[in-house]
Structures are given as structure tokens and as C-alpha cells.
């Protein structure tokens, strides 16, 4: 199981998460997000990260050429597509580097995830909330994530924090976990005590573990 800490905006938080055992950090390139990071700042940040830690770029309705520019300049490991991207856009990128996103609401149908088989290596499930693309701080019914495992490699997101992370692992056992607002002191600023407690809660599920990034094997 992999652990991604998303919404990084500064090197201090990123390095601390890596020290605790994060396999990946998420960088949000959506200007309306309180966790937005400009490409210039991101370049300084990723240059100091351990080599084994994956760098995931999070994009919302960003044109493909602009995404490619970020990939080239930052050496991104994978790209996370929010905002109802058409499948033909996702198909322009190598499948092994594409994370599709499905927002789970009351009308979510797990069978719809089959559309991503040919274009994405994994699907991130997040809580559906109008006007927001991640960072809701709210969970959804995890039964949807359990059922979704039959249709895709699942990255579980949405309201995860030190208090519910163990239950999430036991209940869902996803390919990966994605945590953002649940370990923050404020939007874009991580809380070291929460991060430490998160990994303490995860320790029983990650015995003798060596971080290997997001190879999607």
C-alpha cells in the first residue's frame, strides 16, 4: 500500500512527510485552490525531494500542452486529472503515468470506472462536493470504494485523517491512500503532529516497509 500526502506548498512539510514514510507528494497546479503552488516554487521543492518519492501533479481543466510543460520541467512521476477531462485527453499521456479521478456522490456507479481501463493506471476516489476538486475534508461511503476495487486500482481519498486512517485501511485495503486536509494546520500548511500521528496509525499495516514511490506495479 502506498501513501500520498497531497497539497504540498513548501519544502519543509514535504521533506517531513518523506522522512515519516510518504511514497508520494502531491502538487496542486490549480490556481483557485488554497493549496496551489506555482511551477517555479514547485521546481525548487521537487529538486530537494528524495529520488524514490513520486511527484504527482494535480490538474483541474488545465490544457494538455500546459500539463506537458509541467511534466517536462518538473519531472513529474504521474498526473492526476480532476475536472471531468474527456477520455481522449487522458489518452494523450502514457497510461502508466495517468491517475483518473472519480467523485463519489449518492448517484455514483462503480461500473463507470471501466471507462478508464485503457487510459489510466489507477483511479482516485474522492468525495463529491459542488465547486470543489479535492480537499473537501469529508469522507464518502467506503462501500463504494470496496466495490470499485473490482473495476480499477483504487487510491482512496476524501476526509482521511489520523483518527480514521486505520479504519479506512481495514475496511477498504486500497492500493494507495491520499491525504491532504486531514493533516493540515491550515490550507496549504501541514501539521507535523498530525502527520506524525497519521504514520503512527499506519505503522501496523506497513511492517518492514521500504518506500518505493508509485511504480503502479
Describe the structure.
With 217 residues, the protein is an alpha/beta fold. The protein has one domain (2-205): Alpha-Beta Barrel (TIM Barrel). It is 27% helix and 21% strand. It contains seven helices and ten strands. An eight-stranded parallel beta barrel has the order 1-2-3-4-5-6-7-8, surrounded by four helices. One of its GO terms (biological process) is L-tryptophan biosynthetic process. It holds the Pfam family PRAI. It is an enzyme of class 5 (isomerase).
If you consult CATH, what is the topology?
Answer: TIM Barrel
Can you list the strand order of the major beta sheet? 1-2-3-4-5-6-7-8
The number of helical elements comes to 7
Structure summary, number of beta strands: 10
Order of helices and strands: EHEHEHEHEEHEHEEEH
Classified by CATH, the class is Alpha Beta
Roughly what percent helix?
25-40%
Task: Return the average pLDDT rounded to an integer.
Answer: 92
Strand content: 15-25%
CATH superfamily: Aldolase class I
Q: What's the number of domains?
A: 1
> What's the architecture in CATH terms?
Alpha-Beta Barrel
Q: Which structural class best describes the helix and strand composition?
A: alpha/beta
Terminal residue distance: 11 Å
- Over the alpha carbons, how many angstroms does the gyration radius reach? 16 Å
Largest sheet: 8 strands, parallel, barrel
Amino acid at each position: 500500500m502506498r501513501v500520498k500526502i497531497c497539497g504540498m506548498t513548501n519544502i519543509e512539510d514535504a521533506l517531513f512527510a518523506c522522512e515519516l514514510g510518504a511514497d508520494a507528494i502531491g502538487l496542486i497546479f490549480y490556481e483557485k485552490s488554497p493549496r496551489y503552488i506555482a511551477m517555479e516554487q514547485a521546481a525548487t521543492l521537487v529538486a530537494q525531494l528524495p529520488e524514490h518519492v513520486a511527484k504527482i501533479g494535480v490538474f483541474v481543466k488545465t490544457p494538455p500542452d500546459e500539463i506537458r510543460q509541467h511534466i517536462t520541467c518538473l519531472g513529474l512521476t504521474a498526473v492526476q486529472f480532476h475536472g471531468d477531462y474527456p477520455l481522449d485527453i487522458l489518452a494523450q499521456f502514457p497510461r502508466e503515468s495517468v491517475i483518473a479521478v472519480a467523485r463519489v456522490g449518492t448517484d455514483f456507479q462503480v461500473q463507470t470506472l471501466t471507462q478508464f481501463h485503457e487510459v489510466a493506471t489507477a483511479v482516485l476516489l474522492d468525495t463529491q462536493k459542488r465547486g470543489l476538486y479535492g480537499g473537501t475534508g469529508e469522507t464518502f461511503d467506503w462501500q463504494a470504494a470496496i466495490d470499485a476495487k473490482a473495476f480499477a486500482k483504487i487510491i482512496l481519498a476524501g476526509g482521511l485523517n489520523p483518527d480514521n486512517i486505520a479504519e479506512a485501511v481495514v475496511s477498504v485495503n486500497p492500493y494507495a491512500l491520499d491525504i491532504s486536509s486531514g493533516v493540515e494546520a491550515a490550507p496549504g500548511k501541514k501539521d507535523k503532529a498530525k502527520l506524525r500521528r497519521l504514520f503512527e496509525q499506519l505503522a501496523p499495516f506497513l511492517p518492514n516497509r521500504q518506500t518505493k514511490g508509485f511504480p503502479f506495479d
